[in-house]
């Protein structure tokens, strides 16, 4: 059983390393990222051996094929991770940016400057590529990464962190810039969540159960990510061809991710002309419709009755809840009641409907005449993304490098006193 | 005993009111603030009667004179609170500000826009003026205020919230824009801290015990405020007259507040010329010095030996810990080990020393040749302040109206799909 002392000892080393990382220049950090990328490729066979241990254990434990695929590394996937590190090196350094700056009437110069958060704890599930991805983003933003991957990827993660840590040291950075939390048991996570004062923030990445556990039990501040019960609302004034394209894209293009749509709301004024057509298209794509009324939807095995649970479910599959509403306000009320605050789209040509919809919701992103699938750090041009925040404090929506920073006020005077 | 159901019912009403406040214009909010100010003045005698009940109960319970003074209202103090509301009405509205905005290569227009947090819970101690102050700042930033003052101010707070809520309704806002959390027992606080999903953030304002309780037990996100163990470091290259003025101002001008200095660090190269003089000045002002060495400090009843506890204590009184260090790095290491991350000042003419000091600390504010007392929303020109955050997420340092907001992405396309 992992002890609190073991976790605090490692977290303390992350904290000491954070003090060394904070003042580094962009050039120093980028050189380390390239060193890490090269080291990963050079260590491919060692990493693959470690990964094969995890895969064998996973097969023995009866892991599903999908899980095994997410766990599996290959020379190509390792090259992909290395390229990810090089890409991060190419991004601007968020540290040192002046967020606000002005001179007060008394001559004091006030500068609000981006600084690292410090120690970033990340708790995540199977994919070992998150290990490299998170380490790179933390390093670039001047933070140390304290990683707690899943037990099923333990050998892979240990090998990866060993390579990254050694490469960091070779580039003149502290080896503790990237560390694994000791242990694979539940206590290991618990002690990390209690390490307030040593760890500055925890970002959970994974399923709803993982995130709920961290949010409810961590006394270290948490950034909640990833649950997405997204809606598309087709307004009375919608271009119905555009609406069909947006609904299809939002639901079908990649149903397993958080920015795919889970509920379609259709204004009653266009329901008769829109629902039969779009339902057929969705059925053709294999989507099961969970409907509040069978009136306008083709019958068949892919049409079922919706219950309340459908309005709140993030299917992450080829399922879509469908409801007819009588107004923008009813759509807003439905979304506020059942949504997760991730992304909602409106299809409409009516500026007043658009303004009402967008100003009355309480979500991280509102898409106007665009697919929900655009809520993404890559699509937003951030170059990298640590996750999509669905909470309101600190960062909301896709989180890039600036969202992995804090700020400090640097105030310069000439003997100023009050 | 206050039940969870009672607190959740009231929080639910705050949440419903938040949906109505969010889309309001600045004019509507400012009109309500003026209505509240006028109503407060008009209701002076009722508020003072309620306050006299709290004062009588406080005297009967043996409250110290200082506490009773903080609890006491007067026509002048009520007028002051009303003026505070009018001042907040005069500040710019943070809501709707475009934080970032750009057009992507595919033509999608991305706008990151300030929106309210939603329901702001504030847990605070004796002063009833916080009730009005917090309600005004919340309303201006489009948030509903859910207030949990101390039991000792219960009658005063009930009267104040009654007046504010009625005035809000008169101005056409929801009456639930300002509410008190039901109950004065411990359970009332506990249920508030568990109301995740209904309450968006809790800001504790008060002593270290209150803040620790909230930070460790709340599953609603918390913004930690107020603990300040601030340092002044007098460098080898300091102008010693300036240094003496800054030390005196940082310690003596208002020792009870969080941005006053608690520890003086002096470089050994100037200790012999600086310490005897500044010590005499501090002694004359009644400051007790807790010293790591008696060598350079005048003897007497105001000079005592420092122990480790002195390095970590926020005295909030005429006490100052004093230590001689041999380098900027030693000063930084001392502050990182013992400080609270609030404000640290350096007095130096050496740009390299200043750069090293400011880039290696981990505090909300660094003052260069200026008093620690300048870390303050009013001094920074914010016009109002809800507190000084000493945490790194969301807001750090003095928190004005923009720090009481979240953001949302409004993304506009023309049928864009991926």
Give me the secondary-structure topology.
2 copies of one chain form a homodimer.
Chain A lengths: L3 H18 L4 H17 L1 H17 L4 H7 L3 H15 L8 E6 L5 E8 L2 E6 L4 H12 L3 E5 L5 H17 L7 E3 L5 H8 L7 E5 L2 H10 L12 E5 L5 H13 L8 E7 H17 L3 E4 L11 E3 L2 H5 L6 E7 L2 H11 L4 E5 L3 H10 L4 E6 L16 E3 L7 E3 L5 E12 L2
Parallel strand pairs in A: 3-4, 3-6, 4-5, 7-8, 7-12, 8-11, 9-10, 9-11, 12-13
Antiparallel strand pairs in A: 1-2, 2-16, 14-15
Helix pairs in contact in A: 1-8, 2-5, 2-7, 3-7, 5-6, 10-11, 13-14
Give keywords.
homodimer; 418 residues; alpha/beta; Aldehyde Dehydrogenase, Chain A, domain 1; Aldehyde Dehydrogenase, Chain A, domain 2; 7-stranded parallel beta sheet; 4-stranded parallel beta sheet; 14 helices; 16 strands; globular
Fold and architecture overview:
By secondary structure, chain A is an alpha/beta fold. Chain A has two domains: 238 residues, Aldehyde Dehydrogenase, Chain A, domain 1, CATH 3.40.605; 150 residues, Aldehyde Dehydrogenase, Chain A, domain 2 (3-Layer(aba) Sandwich), CATH 3.40.309.10. The first copy, chain A, is built from 14 helices and 16 strands. The model of chain A has no long low-confidence stretch (mean pLDDT 96). At the A-B interface, strand 2, helix 10, helix 14, strand 13 and strand 16 of A face strand 2, helix 10, helix 14, strand 13 and strand 16 of B. Chains A, B: InterPro entries: Ald_DH/histidinol_DH, Ald_DH_C, Ald_DH_N, Aldehyde_DH_dom, G-glutamylP_reductase_CS, Glu-5-SA_DH, GPR_dom.
In short:
Chains A, B: Its main location: cytoplasm. Two copies of one chain form a homodimer. With 418 residues, chain A is α/β, with parallel strands linked by helices.
